[in-house]
Design goal:
Layout lengths: L6 E6 L2 H13 L4 E6 L9 E3 L9 H9 L4 E4 L2 H5 L2 H7 L4 E2 L3 H8 L1 H10 L7 E3 L3 H10 L4 E4 L9 E3 L3 H7 L4 E4 L4 E9 L5 E3 L4 E2 L2 E3 L3 E4 L4 E4 L6 H21 L6 E10 L2 E8 L6 H5 L7 H10 L14 E9 L2 E5 L2 E6 L24 E5 L2 E4 L3 E4 L3 E9 L2 H12 L7 E2 L20
Parallel strand pairs: 1-2, 1-4, 2-3, 4-5
Antiparallel strand pairs: 6-9, 7-8, 7-9, 10-11, 10-16, 12-15, 13-14, 15-18, 16-17, 18-24, 18-25, 19-20, 21-24, 22-23
Length: 443
């Protein structure tokens, strides 16, 4: 398959997908990226969105991949992965990167993953599973420690409740999992696997999972991110490889799972070292928007090594020294109008229902020397132009030689963008998610 320069079909629809598309095209200048369904507003010459394709049916994607003679398919979307899209591409003989349906259960089922990790020696917090809410309530009232209550299945970043008291936990129990609350600092590791034991680490990022300033509000899919992570160093990476990644890879091998692509390991750094909190089978969003702009290696070539099972022989990724700060522009509170009549208010993402179709202006004013813009849930309306089409609409990524400079560049350019109800956190990169003081000058 394929012609000179390289052709890839990228399956996603998010700011993460746009960041991947930019990475492929930036690091392989003669490559063509078909981004499906993508975003119809992305019109660069070598990134071609395919909005008539969807994340609900893989067969039209298979037909498209054959017709366009792509070299391989890269599946980046959690719904597509857990829905078995990788299996379908493989059944049709199309090279594809991504864990298959069985391996994607590592994200789709928290209970399955925690049980496997405990069996293979991956360090996890104490936990218990319940399908009876009353039994769960009794458990959280009896244990001598604070807990985290988590929902089973894909939750889009909204299925975890960190509880300070038993009363908090009782209110949160409409789910199937309760685990001991670990105290420390969260850090996520992103590692590319080739299915044969080889791996490469992507840069680390720190995300901001709370909806409101000062780390208040509800836990959501993420309101921003920074990279590098303030705590990352060589010693930490070695500890992660030894205590988490090695037994996790043994788990994948021992269970016969077919896993290629990115594994996202959410961890808690405690006084006893890192503990695994969760496994996701794709790069996070908005962490991807912070991490991928820093990668300088030819990512098309890296993917070739994944497909060939030769990552162990591949040199480490070349990573820029730049700092990044992602500010997510979300669809907030707006009036609910129906046929010109006021029906009240949409509360906005992530608190509840949100409106769609609000024109987005000012993106052309963002300074490309200091920022990247990745489109998330947005589309082109035939009359209104670029409009909002979901919860996390636009991601503005500031670049800088220091974290402070990246933060300043991000917010200076956020000021150019507008759509009705637009909301964002004003403190990404200025405070840390564990509520430490604002960063000092020059960091």
């Amino acid at each position: 398959m394929g012609t000179s320069g390289g052709r890839v079909l990228l399956v996603d629809r998010s700011g993460r997908g746009h960041a991947y598309a930019e990475l492929f095209s930036r690091t392989r200048p003669d490559a063509t990226v078909f981004y499906a369904p993508g975003c119809s507003a992305i019109t660069t010459e070598r990134v071609v969105s395919v909005p008539h394709l969807s994340l609900s049916d893989p067969l039209p994607l298979v037909e498209f991949a054959r017709r366009e003679e792509v070299d391989f398919v890269f599946v980046a979307n959690a719904v597509a992965l857990t829905g078995g899209f990788v299996d379908v591409f493989r059944e049709h003989g199309i090279p594809v990167i991504g864990p298959d349906r069985a391996a994607s259960r590592l994200e789709a089922s928290k209970s399955y993953t925690k049980d496997l990790c405990r069996h293979y020696g991956v360090r996890v917090a104490e936990y218990a599973w319940f399908d009876d809410p009353e039994e769960a309530r009794g458990y959280v009232r009896a244990v001598p420690y604070a807990v985290v209550v988590k929902a089973e299945g894909l939750c889009g970043g909204n299925g975890s409740f960190v509880c300070d008291t038993a009363e908090d936990a009782v209110r949160a129990i409409d789910t199937l999992m309760v685990e001991r609350r670990l105290h420390g600092r969260e850090i996520s590791f992103f590692t590319l696997l080739d299915g044969r034991g080889g791996h490469l680490h992507l840069p680390l990022a720190l995300d901001y999972p709370k909806s409101d300033d000062a780390n208040r509000g509800v836990t959501c899919g993420g309101m921003g991110a920074i990279s590098p992570h303030p705590l990352e160093d060589a010693r930490l990476l070695e500890e992660y490889e030894d205590r988490i990644l090695a037994p996790l890879k043994e788990c994948i091998r021992g269970e016969g799972l077919r896993y290629t692509g990115v594994v996202y390991v959410g961890s808690m750094l405690t006084d006893e070292g890192p503990y695994l909190l969760e496994v996701n089978v794709r790069l996070g969003d908005p962490e991807a928007e912070a991490v991928l702009p820093r990668v300088e290696s030819d990512f098309f070539g890296v993917c070739r090594a994944v497909l060939d099972g030769t990552l162990a022989d591949h040199p480490s990724l070349r990573v820029s020294d730049l700092y990044t700060c992602v500010v997510t522009l979300a669809q907030g509170r707006t009036r609910h109008l129906s046929r010109g009549r006021n029906k009240g208010w949409y509360v906005g993402w992530p608190y509840g229902r949100y409106g769609k179709g609000y024109p987005i202006t000012g993106i052309e004013r963002v300074d490309p020397a200091r920022c990247r813009v990745f489109l998330g849930e947005a589309e082109v309306h035939p009359e209104k132009g670029l409009v909002s089409d979901g919860g996390r609409v636009v991601h503005v990524v500031g670049l800088g030689a220091t974290r402070r400079e990246a933060v300043e560049n991000a917010y200076a350019n956020v000021g150019h963008v507008h759509f009705e109800g637009m909301r964002y956190r004003s403190d990404i990169g200025r405070v840390l998610p564990w509520t430490e003081p604002a960063l000092s000058a020059g960091t």
